[in-house]
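A student in our group prepared the protein record below, which I am reviewing. Here is the record exactly as it was handed to me.
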Amino acid sequence: MRSENTNILVLLDNVSSHHAPETLTHVEIRKLPPNTIAHLQPLDAGIIRNFKSMISKEKVLYYADRLDEILSRFEEDGQEILERELETIGNVDVLVAMRWAEEAWASVKCTTIFNCWRHTGILDEEL
């Protein structure tokens, strides 16, 4: 970071186990106020809510695609197989869920994150 002349800001919650070294260069460490209530935390200020809504959209699209796929095979597979597949349509493996999370996080806009941080009032305006 020194050679690139870049600086970073590290925010830590105010826990006694978090000790910040004093010899860091190009790194500024700030601790959140003690007993920070939920509305001061940027994740609780809307980032998590936005992420969850994006995951919900991914789930709806996935279930709609699965339902279309199952219904398109209705005549050739028969009703018994169709009913069995419809009963398990909500079963999702971990890889699919991880892909939902990846897509959802990619859909969270930088402005959402910025506005949530600004809303908390934790950071100075110059940052």
